[in-house]
Amino acid sequence: MNRLLRDSFLHKGYTYEYLTDIFRDVYGQNYIFEDEGQLVLALKKIHDSGRHVVVYPDFDMDGISAGCILYAGLSLFGFRVSLFAPRTDRGYGMEPEDVERLVSEFPDVSAVITCDVGIAAMDAIARARSHGLKVLVTDHHPETMRTSASVIVDPSRIGSQAEFKGVCGAYVALHVMRLYADLTGNEAVKALIEKLTLFAGLGSRGDAMPVIHDTRSVVRRSVELFNQLLDCEDVSEFFGCSVEMLPDVYVAPFENLRALHYYMLREGKVQGGDLTEETYDFKYCPLFNSIKRMGSDIRLLYDLLYTRYPWERNTEREDLCSWIVENNETRKAAIKQIYESLAQDASQAYAPYIYLADAKPGLLGPLASKFLELTGKPCLVLRPDGNGYSGSGRTPQGFDRTKNGVFAFPGVKADGHENAFGAYVPKKLLKDVRDAMERGFLAMPAGTGVPGEYYVLGMNGRSCLGDYDFSITRPDDFDVCFEYAHEIDRFRPFGQGLEEPEFALAFTPRDVLGSRLMGSSQTHLRLSLDHAITVVWFNGAGFLEKLSAARPEDVFRVAGKFRINRFNGSEYLQFQADHEISC
Ligand SMILES: [Mn+2]
Fold first, then answer.
1. Which residues make up the CATH 3.10.310.30 domain(s) of the chain?
2. What is the CATH number of domain 31-322?
């Protein structure tokens, strides 16, 4: 392994043993989740009797992906299957009124299969059973109380022996479809189900699952499949068989995702070249999640995903592509506007721990994330709800809300992931909760929640730079960095469980051989340092003034990452700077 790669990983605590372990699949071939066999047999019965099964998904990126896997997968197996359109204008969950609507929309339904939702839907499942429906649950959320569902497949069930629980809802759905494909024994069908891994990868990123074990291989495979889908001449090549043999509902999501990508490319919303898991994080997950954020009609998204050849009838697909892109732009603008007005609002009595806002429920989580990012403090953003306030909470790593009991007041609710959750606070407890959040924050162990355990690269190893982990002094050191930039991509995807090393490049004005501003508005900065190190800093023009005013021995530290830049068939090493670190 490259020396810089090994050392910067070790600096983050990733030993060789750890790296070996996280590349291991836990739920590989032949693994069966508790009751998964039973679920597949129940499906087989539904299939053989020709009964109508309706897929009930959640409506975020993971839910949409899970829904796609079951809808497309079951269609491929020849089921009579429909996809339910959940309400998007309220929080996560499944209510009896949703079941009533499902039954009225699909009067001949005889079974419901959930994905990414359902594990806690006590009342909704009881209602479905009262209509004579069989309910099959697939989910990844933790089970707290057993519902009356016929079969439950969820690695986070009560008493689960599953070794690894960090998989998304779409992964669980895919696992069930794989097992069903095994049962059919048809190799061609198995290969087609495997293509749906593309959506399980989107779901994994949408839910920010740890990039270890099976989630790691699913995301890797997903990115690979997405790139193949974009690179192939036509989708028949991608599937390895003529699409005319396949159900529309199976083919359309791939075809339309490809069309959406080319639309985004044309509109300048994504960059050309190979996509990575970062394209999922920064482009596709926000795009699809804008449906839940804005409470938009998920049926439009279903039209975009599941209608084949809409462009032969009219230009509907272009319209649908522009609709979802616009929806996301509106979401961004709304969050920015509300964030700015909240940050300046002097009447926010509980800030910066609690903000009260009259915003759409789906926008509260991203707002709380922005405040957390700004202050490093736990934050709730809530809206009026009956006698209290409901909304979303975000807490820094190291603020363990389960252990510290900050939200353990009677009547206060905090449900969901450890650091990102839904919350409810009765009006009279706002002050108490705010104070508890502050106490919890102050009691956090030092050194946690602070981003930036940088691996320090010292230019020329001058003693004035103080401590550094690696010195760029000789031509060989450039080669080590260049090789690092090549090898680091092999360790994608990065995320929780395996983070990309972040470097701090330490240098003095004496190490800077040249500088120039770039971009049409001259806002980007390019520095040429000694030993052929090039620093590229997006929106970094302001740093140049500082540099020019500095004394030759002043030390600067700039955080960033190494990347290979490919241009005209040649490869260049770049240090992509992100921000300055004060020393
Ligand atoms: Mn999920």
1. 345-442
2. 3.90.1640.30
**CA–centroid distance, residue 154 to ligand 1 (Å):** 12
DSSP string, 317-368: HHHHHHHHHHHHHHHHHHHHHHHHHHHH-TT-TTTTTEEE----HHHHHHHH
Q: Tokens representing 126?
A: 């009881």
Pairing of strands 524-529, 512-518: antiparallel
* CATH 3.90.1640.30 domain residues, the chain: 31-322
CA of residue 297 to ligand 1 center, whole Å: 19
Alpha helices in 49-186 (DSSP H): 61-76, 96-105, 122-130, 169-184
Q: Report the interhelical angle of 316-344 vs 361-375 (nearest 10°).
A: 50
Beta partners for residue 558, in sequence order: 505, 580
Range(s) of the chain covered by CATH 2.40.50.140? 455-581
Amino acid identity, position 533: I
CA of 482 to the centre of ligand 1 (A): 38
**Residue matched to tokens 């090898």:** 487
Question: What whole-number distance in Å separates Cα of residue 490 and Cα of residue 153?
Answer: 33
Do β-strands 534-537 and 570-581 pair in parallel, antiparallel, or remain unpaired? parallel
pLDDT tens for 276-329 read: 999 999 999 999 999 999 999 999 999 999 998 655 555 556 688 999 999 999
31-70 pLDDT, tens digit per residue, is 999 999 999 999 999 999 999 999 999 999 999 999 999 9
User: Who surrounds ion ligand 1 at CB < 5 A?
Assistant: 62, 116, 169, 207
Distance from the alpha carbon of residue 473 to the mean position of ligand 1, in angstroms: 48
Do 78 and 135 touch, CB atoms closer than 8 A? no
**Ligand 1 center–CA 145 separation, angstroms:** 18
Does domain 455-581 correspond to CATH entry 2.115.10.20?
no
Q: What is the pLDDT of residues 327-360, one digit of tens each?
A: 999 999 999 999 999 999 999 999 999 999 999 9
Per the DSSP assignment, residues forming a β-bridge with 576 are 536, 561
**Which class would CATH give 345-442?**
alpha beta
Structure tokens at 458: 């010292």
User: Could you tell me the pTM of the whole model?
Assistant: 0.90
How far does the centroid of ligand 1 lie from the alpha carbon of residue 207, in Å?
6
| Cα–ligand 1 centroid distance for 5 (angstroms) | 33
CA of 96 to the centre of ligand 1 (A): 21
Helix (H) or strand (E) holding 567: strand 556-567
Best CA proximity match to 38, nearest among 131, 144, 134: 134
The one-character DSSP state at 445 is P
